[in-house]
Automatic annotation (TrEMBL):
GO CC annotations, alphabetized: cytosol
InterPro entries cross-referenced by the UniProt entry: Cytidylyl_trans, Nucleotide-diphossugar_trans
Organism encoding this protein: Niveispirillum lacus
Domain of life: Bacteria
Sequence intervals crossing the membrane: none
Identification of the protein by name: Spore coat protein
PANTHER family (UniProt xref): 3-DEOXY-MANNO-OCTULOSONATE CYTIDYLYLTRANSFERASE, SPORE COAT POLYSACCHARIDE BIOSYNTHESIS PROTEIN SPSF
Cross-referenced Pfam families: CTP_transf_3 (PF02348)
Length: 247
């Protein structure tokens, strides 16, 4: 029996720096709809689910996603690990691939590379992620099996481990076998996630430029657009990425 590999997109309306960002419209669609459209092209994902909070403020998001034909799971706003784990159980996932809802340029081919890295590893991996120190921020994805996820859900106690889902795993390389999809030849220092108005302006430039010519564009197409318009990198150059505590 083949594994059920479920992509779970964490999303909510209550972002502190850009409230409602996942529902902002660009090129005729919400940002979350762009992300879903792109992830639907993955060859290895069995299904998709959006995990949002059970707060009334996320009703519109839940209804919007359901209208796109995507499963919705609603749970704790603050304990995102609990929400994510329960979403994986609800979808009967053997493997869960974590995305955040602020990445409308996610590349399904790169996601498939990550899943392949996880699937073919011998000995098996507990966790794998795209290396965003090489790839642009906004192509982020993490993958783990349900057993490792259950261990994190059961044992994680620190607030940031509950909020960010995966740190319990990657902070313990002595216990969990880890890997990163990386390439030392790549130097793509751009920020394509949407956390501020400046991020949104850049992503709008990219989507409105690339979609008309090729709706299935990949991250390399976006890279070429960035190099053709060097001024675009200045738009969100000063945005500071939120950081997690060091290992």
């Amino acid at each position: 029996m083949s594994s059920r590999i479920i992509g779970i997109i964490q999303a909510r309306m209550g972002s502190t720096r850009l409230p409602g960002k996942v529902m902002r419209e660009v090129a005729g669609k919400s940002l979350i709809a762009h992300q879903i459209d792109r992830l639907r092209r993955s060859r290895h994902l069995t299904g998709l689910c959006v995990a949002t909070s059970d707060l009334a403020g996320d009703d519109a998001l839940a209804n919007h996603v359901a209208g796109l034909g995507i499963a919705v799971f609603r749970g704790s706003e603050q304990d995102v690990l609990d929400r994510f784990y329960r979403a994986a159980l609800a979808q009967k996932a053997d493997v869960a691939v974590r995305f955040t809802g602020d990445c409308p340029l996610i590349d399904p081919a790169l996601v498939d590379e990550l899943i392949n890295l996880y699937r073919i590893a011998d000995p098996p991996l507990a966790y794998a992620a795209i290396d965003v120190s090489r790839y642009p921020r906004g192509l982020d994805a993490e993958v783990t099996g349900i057993a490792a996820l259950r261990a994190a859900w059961t044992e994680a106690r620190m607030d940031f481990e509950r909020e960010h889902v995966m740190p319990f795993l990657w902070r313990r390389p002595d216990r969990f076998r880890l890997a990163w999809l990386s390439d030392p030849a790549i130097e793509a220092p751009w920020r394509w996630c949407v956390d501020t108005e400046q991020d949104l302006i850049l992503v709008r430039h990219l989507l409105e430029t690339l979609l008309p010519a090729n709706p299935a564009f990949g991250w390399r197409d976006a890279e070429r657009a960035m190099r053709a318009h060097p001024d675009w990198a200045l738009i969100n150059r000063d945005v500071v990425q939120k950081t997690l505590p060091p290992t």
